[in-house]
Specification:
The protein is 7% helix and 42% strand. The chain has two domains: 146 residues, no CATH class; 169 residues, no CATH class. It is elongated and about 75 Å long. By secondary structure, it is mostly beta strands.
Length: 327
């Protein structure tokens, strides 16, 4: 090992890795491809962006690794992360890192948990070592040993995601939907029914996104929550978050409960990138106003039955869906 360099990354308002059993997180980056999946320069404060870009442009992965190291602090004065003491022991890169309080003597600190992080470049004389073990100290003074490697997945396994895909058992269909308003046009289902995939969306033999619903049974007036997650180890794109059907199962098949004028059904052709483990979240109140939102109407009123949320903004043919019962 010949050299190290550190650049502060960002201070997030939340971190999916965090629970009270750990003091930090490490992601080992050993290639430009992995760097592109991990480092989100457009989310970094603008004042740091150029320095980080120059830092990354100077990395040669033939002789270096980059560590994304994060910790946690008890207030808004913990805005940086320090790291050092690096050495190679038993083919493992070891060292220390800690959350840093950067406040002055007279500075007041806000009451909010923060997650300072930094990028650390470690350069070696020979082949870079990617197995890493750091003693990370958080803002409360707690220290824990955190390990990581370059082969660690960047996204969760779909089997480990919280939530559900659909209720067990078949549903009894309700009568076909009918609206007394002659001007009402029901929202169409864009993908063919055969191309609707439940839970996990697969294209070209790869599962790219997973959709889950928080529960499988609700009552009218409850709020249903759905989460779409990128389960690849690279950035993956979708259309915008509005591209979904909210349907009920009828004797005529799945019918969207929403509608309006035909001009309401246009969607922008916009690609939105999602880092590994990220995606969209939806919260929909199961009332006519909550389901219709600011764009559609619901006709007739919501009834009990088996409902389906089908997101057709995934890239590829079809949609990814979850189902739930409403009493």
């Amino acid at each position: 090992m010949t050299d190290t360099e550190i650049q502060q990354y960002r201070v997030e308002g939340s971190a999916e890795w965090y629970d009270e059993s750990t003091t930090g997180q490490i992601v080992v980056i050993d290639s430009e491809k992995r760097q592109e999946a991990v480092v989100r320069l457009h989310e970094v404060p603008e004042a740091r962006r150029e320095a980080l870009r120059e830092f990354l442009d100077g990395v040669d992965y033939e002789e270096s690794v980059v560590l994304l190291v994060a910790s946690v602090g008890p207030n808004t004065c913990y805005t940086e992360l320090d790291a050092g003491g690096f050495a190679v022991e038993d083919d493992t890169l070891v060292g220390e890192a800690s959350a840093v309080d950067t406040s002055g003597d007279d500075e007041a600190c806000g009451e909010a948990v923060t997650f300072p992080s930094a990028l650390v470049r470690v350069t070696f004389e020979g082949t870079p070592v990617t197995d890493t073990s750091l003693d990370i100290t958080d803002g409360w003074g707690e220290t824990a040993t955190v390990t990581a490697g370059a082969d660690d997945p960047l996204s969760p396994d779909p089997a480990d995601l919280p939530g559900y895909v659909r209720p067990e058992g078949d549903a009894d269909p309700i009568a076909p939907l009918s609206c007394e308003d002659d001007s009402f046009e029901r929202h169409p289902q864009w993908p063919d029914e055969a191309d609707v995939q439940y839970g996990n969306f697969e294209t070209d033999g790869e599962t790219t996104f997973a959709l889950r619903v928080a529960e499988t049974s609700y009552e009218r007036g409850d709020t249903v929550e759905m989460t779409l997650t990128n389960v690849t180890d690279r950035e993956a794109s979708t259309g915008n978050r509005r591209k979904y059907n909210l349907q009920v199962y009828t004797e005529d098949g799945w019918q969207d409960v929403r509608g309006g004028s035909e001009s309401s059904f246009g969607y922008t052709d916009l690609a939105i990138g999602h880092a590994p483990g990220e995606g969209f979240e939806w919260s929909v109140e199961l009332t006519e106003d909550g389901v219709g939102g600011d764009r559609f109407e619901v006709c007739p009123d919501l009834s009990a039955g088996r409902y389906r949320f089908a997101y057709f903004g995934v890239i590829g043919d079809g949609a990814v869906a979850v189902a739930f019962d409403v009493a």
